[in-house]
Amino acid sequence: MSGYSAAAVKFPFWFYEFKQTMEWQRDSEQWAQVKRHIIDENWFKLSSISRRQSLYSEVAGRVQSLTPAISNVFFKTDLDNQRLINLIGMMNTNRLFKAFILRTYRDELMLGDLKLEDYEIQAFFRQIQTEDDAAAKWQDETVQRLGSSFRNYLTQAGLAKLDGTTLLVTRPLLDPPLEDALVADNHQDYVAALTGR
Fold first, then answer.
1. How many structural domains are present in the chain?
2. Of 35, 56, 87, which closes a domain?
């Protein structure tokens, strides 16, 4: 995968939609049926066809990125870990967000500061811009919107709480079967990032 994408500015956390799609898959619905639910039947009540197509593409990508072991854990774990599995799907499909979790979020846990200031989020994007030609062309507005998207992802995943403009980072409690499934899938990096080890 070459280059970083700023596409995250278009995609919300979409947990409810992810969960419903996971349920359709569990019930053996084919992707053509899932696509029909989302786009033709407008199951999630979106205002435009393009938004429905965008949601389908993004959420289907997240679900399809998960291994069977992680998908199986989804239906046996609590809501907090289900949100983490959605986040894992996002990390699997969004290289920029994955880098943010593996670098910036993990550092906050490891260093024990547990406060993610806006300047730290901006520093992450500036560093990416020095590493990647495509990212170097992002306008300031794009960087601001990416920062806002990532802050929302962290709060909706339960990895942080907002205190004014500061994110108070929280350490999630990974369900042992989810941790085992991640390790079995060679994602010790995800476990390390989410636990601060």
1. 2
2. 87
Q: Locate 115 and state its tokens.
A: 């406060």
SS3 content of the chain, % helix, strand, coil (to 5): 70, 5, 25
Residue 5 falls inside a structural domain = no
User: How many angstroms separate the CA atoms of 172 and 183, rounded?
Assistant: 17
Place of tokens 């910036």: 104
What is residue 115's three-state secondary structure? Answer: strand
Give 123-176 pLDDT, tens digit per residue.
999 999 999 888 899 999 999 999 999 999 999 999 999 888 788 999 999 999
Residue 2 has pLDDT above 70, yes or no: no
Shared domain check, 80 and 19: yes
- Can you tell me which residue has the tokens 């794009």? 142
CB < 8 Å & 24+ apart, contacts of 188-193? 189/102, 190/88, 190/91, 190/101, 190/102, 192/106, 193/101, 193/102, 193/105, 193/106, 193/109
Question: Amino acid identity of 61?
Answer: G
CA distance 147 to 11: 13
Residue 6, in any domain of the structure: no
Q: Could you tell me which of 75, 22, 62, 18 has the C-alpha nearest to residue 44?
A: 18
**Can you give the C-alpha Rg of the chain in angstroms?**
17
